[in-house]
Amino acid sequence: INEVKVFNNIIKNYYKNEWEYYPETEFSVCYDEMGFHAKFKVPEKNPKAVMTEHFQGVHLDSCVEWFVNFAPEICDRYFNFEINANGVLNANFRKDRYDKLPLTVEDAEALNIKTQILDECWSVEYTVTFEFIKKYIPGYEFKKGMELKANVFKCGEEVEMPHFGMWQEIKREKPDFHQPDDFGTMIIE
Predict the structure, then answer these.
(1) Is the dihedral of CA 164, 170, 172, 173 positive or negative?
(2) Least enclosed by CB within 10 Å: which of 47, 105, 117, 166?
(3) What are the Cα distances from residue 148, in Å, to 7, 73, 78, 152?
């Protein structure tokens, strides 16, 4: 596979919590002729992973999330890919927290999600194909130099030490990741 790195960073912005638990989660996004490949590495022992079926509330478990608008110049919606350590996905195609179009089980399976749990960390990787994107954004065309609008999160709402981290800071008093106005830019090189 001829992968080109689009973006590589660490989630460091966290809402303060009483445990001072702020796992610096690595993420990267690459592309090839098929589509975009997202990868996460989470420095977390024994991640909570109760949800076992797609479209359950994985944000309650130990979870990583990529919210992304692949074509902001022609589309005002974004995908929220939320995945726990079991490889279970919750995702929609959204304008915001409330205006959403559900994805299908076939969509979830098409992402080819792979997870691994080790002693000191866990990881997730998956692929969002150009074909998948065109299903929801019919006018989409991939080209170098384009910009994705996105944010990346690490959370766990009902874990031993609840935490809410983000790549691009969201300036809200309480965690609410569905803020497309606060998305950052990922430039395709």
Answers:
(1) positive
(2) 105
(3) 10, 9, 10, 12
**Which of 165, 156, 168 has its CA nearest to residue 68?**
168
CA–CA separation, 83 vs 50, rounded Å? 12
Strand order in the sheet with 4-11: 4-11, 25-31, 35-42, 122-129, 114-117
The residue whose two tokens read 């929801």 is: 136
Mean pLDDT, rounded, of the chain = 93
For tokens 């975009």, the residue is 36
Collapsing DSSP states into helix, strand and coil, what is residue 152? strand
Give burial (CB, 10 Å; 0-12/13-18/19+) of 144: exposed
User: Which tens digit of pLDDT belongs to each residue from 7-21?
Assistant: 678 999 999 999 999
Structure tokens at 147: 């910009």
**Is residue 35 within 8 Å of residue 68, measured between CB atoms?**
no
Reading the block at residue 130, the tokens are: 């150009």
pTM (two decimals):
0.93
